[in-house]
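Per reviewer request, we include the raw input and output of the structure prediction for the construct analysed in the revised manuscript.
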Amino acid sequence: MKSYLLILIVFITFSCKKTDSNKEATKKSTADTSAISTKDFREFKVLDSKYLNNDELWSPFNKDLEDFTEEAYNSLKPLILEQDIPTIQEYISDEKLSYENLTKFYLYRIRKFDRENPLSLNAVIALNPNVITQAKQKDKELLNKRLKHPIFGMPILLKDNINASGMPTTAGAVALLNNLAEDAFIVKQLRLHGALILGKANLSEWAYFFCGDCPSGYSAIGGQTLNPYGRRIIDTGGSSSGSGVAVSANFCVAAVGSETSGSILSPASQNSVVGFKPTVGLLSRSGIVPISSTLDTPGPITKNVVDNAIMLDAMFGFDNTDTASIEFDRDEDYYENLINTKSDALSRKRFGVFKEYLKDSLFANAIQILRNEGASIIEIEEDQVEINGFLTLLNIDMKNDLPNYLNNYGSKNIVISSVADVISFNKKDSLNRMPYGQKLFYGIVNDKTTKAQLQQIKDSLHINGKYFFDVHLKTHNLDAIISINNYNANEAAVAEYPALTVPMGYSEDGAPKGLTFIAKSLQENLLLKWAYAYEQASKMRQAPKDYN
């Protein structure tokens, strides 16, 4: 096993019982966790949030939801559940549905399932108190033929490290409980195209770079997010756990996550949805609580590939305040490119797969589907590429990038200004603010790596990460590498390559898994085409049965 995984294991996994079928998934887990975990609920120190008040959460909506009955909710199910954005927009155009009722449907569903009940998932951490009023306005605008983008009027959840005006951005941490900040760049883009910000999704606190020994999906503010395919049994994946769970359980049309290494790919694959980690710099990071300005990127999490392309389009745009932002002129939008995809999109494409992964029966079946669609599959051996210094990169970036966020994008009433301040703040009420400790934050403040040393680490990681893929892409003339879940998230992260995961089925214990396509920088259009072709040929996603 690669030596760097031994370093990373302190913050990407947690103590749990594992079945034999989980061993390979655990071994290959790279950042956050894609392990399929069997966990007795007694291992969770905290399940429900100690900081969210359900009555307060719902008080802005009580009057508007008075007339939205169970009968009305059930009548709308066929129009909304598991439907893609173009289909929902068609129902609205045909006056079978309105943006107001679409929004009320999701609010009703979140209230019905998400907290304080036997099926609670704890996926939603905050709601936009003005979203029904905003939905009514979208209905009025539609009458004036002002629909300009497929995302118009669609209720979207944001991972709660992404700034959105009118709601706090907490990263799940008590220290940021009152962080009322202006919209992040990508949220401005979403609103510009007409999206409705429904609310915020829970996450692994500080994007899972905080406690080290905590379960994925836990935050002090949001409590413990649970997987709808096996509450308290199957891991949610992290750190965009709430986003993945909320999309899977049909609490929103789509959600936004963020990834440093595995934080979109892991929860998307663990919850049987589509997750896209784009090329670093394709989407702005301004106004997002960071881990690493080198590796961070937001990305869409959706039930299907079509919606993923629409979300990517809606967030796309050059941001001159983000030093990594790429000025990239596209011939056509991702959605337009996708709907123009020919039925033989996989024909004559050459994909590399690591031989050891073919031991996984779901993966082997997915690869056979690709072959049936005309793709050539080349079995390759995984090169032993060193990814040394990964943890150091995260430490030093976080040490520098968090103060930058707080100074430039955070609320002025936040008293903390550094990682060290957060540590001190949490110590004042450790039982509630850090029940699993804050081991990784101690590692950040104790890391004395110099600027020159950090640059050497960055350069080495980027070169080696690219080599990990490029040696096979070039030698075998491959179009992409295909993986499982977030098994190769670290390599894709440091290479700054895009990766897209699509549902590929369920293990014997019902745990979802994803087929993950990885390609070279700025090949998002190709990844979407291939993923869409596989999705249509396989039709593997099944909604979680207790949430229909």
